[in-house]
From TrEMBL:
Top-level taxonomic group: Bacteria
Pfam family, one: UPF0102
GO molecular function, one term: nucleic acid binding
NCBIfam families: PRK12497.3-3
Protein name: UPF0102 protein FHU37_005445
Species assigned in the record: Allostreptomyces psammosilenae
Length: 135
């Protein structure tokens, strides 16, 4: 594993902890198909009682503090289109398997694509910027 892969792997671990901390539960990680990969599929239970919540496709971008590109610049229009395609593929292939048998509630009806930007400073704790509905 090279340094960039290690940074990405660590960023995903931080993102999973963050999502759990705000009440979301992880459905699947690192799902792959021929068109690409979804870093994290999560469920955001929402605020309405009895609501199945929102299915959230999470793109994680980890950056060192010295990186020039802002993590929010990491989803240009072609990447956004690919993430929407991946979300459709995941729903078709995995949602019936993962959401129905394991959980009594109906699968989420709303879908959202979020960016989790994990910034690792030279010293101190990393920060997570959570941008909802980026694509």
């Amino acid at each position: 594993m090279n340094a960039n892969q290690a940074l990405g792997h660590y960023g995903e671990k931080v993102a999973v902890r963050y999502l759990g901390g705000i009440g979301m539960w992880i459905v699947e990680r690192n799902w792959r198909c021929p068109e690409g990969e979804i870093d994290i599929v999560a469920n955001d239970p929402g605020q309405r009682p009895g609501s199945p919540g929102t299915l959230v496709i999470c793109e994680v971008k980890a950056r060192s503090a010295r990186a020039f590109q802002q993590p929010t610049e990491a989803i240009p229009p072609p990447k956004a289109r690919r993430l929407r395609l991946l979300a459709e593929r995941w729903l078709h292939e995995r949602a019936p398997v993962l959401l129905r048998p394991a959980h009594a509630e109906p699968p989420p009806l709303d879908i959202r694509i979020d960016l989790l930007a994990v910034v690792l400073p030279r010293r101190g704790a990393c920060t997570v910027e959570h941008l909802k509905g980026v694509a």
